[in-house]
UniProtKB/TrEMBL annotation:
Record carries keyword Repeat: yes
ABC transmembrane type-1 domain mapped to chain residues: 18-141
Protein family (similarity comment): Belongs to the ABC transporter superfamily. ABCB family. Multidrug resistance exporter (TC 3.A.1.201) subfamily.
GO MF annotation: an example: ATP binding
Stored Pfam families: ABC_membrane
Entry's transmembrane regions: 26-48, 141-164
This protein's name: ABC transmembrane type-1 domain-containing protein
Key words, A-Z: Glycoprotein, Membrane, Repeat, Transmembrane, Transmembrane helix, Transport
Length: 244
């Protein structure tokens, strides 16, 4: 599936480039040569802009995961938090968990802003070069405004398509990996056959449950021990409930 998607993108990109370059060369070859020469720079600018915005959103979401998990645990175990009077401690832990995402967001904002500014500046400079050369060619009477608009629209749209296709390769690879892992799970066969009547069968099953020396604490509060050396013995035929 990954190979098929990449082949589709390659065919789309190559066909778009060949058709656009051929048509633009037929309409106004002098202008087309200059625009084709600077088009790799424009494609890189489009690609960088798309990737920077996408990565910024993903990293910001990832940085907030820890504080989100802590908030969910605190709300889920609200009674436990109140019982141990841990409200102030939870707020301090939440504030500490947000320090790293805050610094990461500021750093990513600087990098993204500088990257977007550079890509926009280079893209504008490329178009400025194209229009300067267009003015020179039109002044000398090589083509009319109609040819300019046609050539410009063809090559500009092609550059945008190429940049978007290039930025999709990462998403396509991630999607293929996810789909592959799903098929691995679906195609996994267990050695235990629940419908098989053969095999070892217990003659007598008792519902006796015994727990010895159990230690337990929540991941968010490892210092607060909920169970310390806890043991319980539930005999068969009896019901026991743990309330807390």
């Amino acid at each position: 599936m990954n190979s098929l998607g990449l082949k589709t993108l390659v065919v789309q990109t190559i066909s778009a480039k060949v058709v656009a370059f051929t048509i633009s060369m037929v309409i106004a070859w002098r202008l087309a040569i200059v625009m084709i020469a600077v088009q790799p720079l424009i494609v890189m600018c489009f690609y960088a802009r798309h990737v920077l915005l996408q990565n910024m959103s993903q990293k910001a979401t990832k940085a907030e995961d820890e504080s989100s998990k802590l908030t969910v645990e605190a709300i889920t175990n609200l009674r436990t938090v109140i019982a141990f009077s841990s409200q102030e401690r939870i707020l301090q832990m939440l504030e500490k968990a947000q320090e790293s995402p805050r610094h990461e967001s500021i750093r990513q904002s600087w990098f993204t802003g500088i990257g977007l500014a550079l890509s926009q500046s280079l893209s504008t400079a490329s178009w400025a070069l194209d229009f300067w050369y267009v003015r020179k060619l039109m002044a000398e009477g090589y083509f009319l405004a109609k040819a300019l608009i046609e050539t410009y629209m063809i090559l500009a749209s092609t550059g945008h398509v190429i940049a978007i296709s290039g930025s999709m390769t990462t998403d396509l690879a991630k999607g293929s990996e996810s789909v592959g892992s799903v098929f691995v799970v679906l195609e996994c066969y267990t050695r235990i056959e629940p419908k098989d009547s053969e095999g070892y069968q217990l003659e007598k099953i008792t519902s006796h449950v015994e727990i010895r020396d159990m230690y337990f604490s929540y991941p968010a509060w490892p210092d607060v021990i909920i169970f310390q050396g806890f043991s319980i013995n539930v005999e068969a035929g009896k019901s026991t409930a743990l309330v807390g």
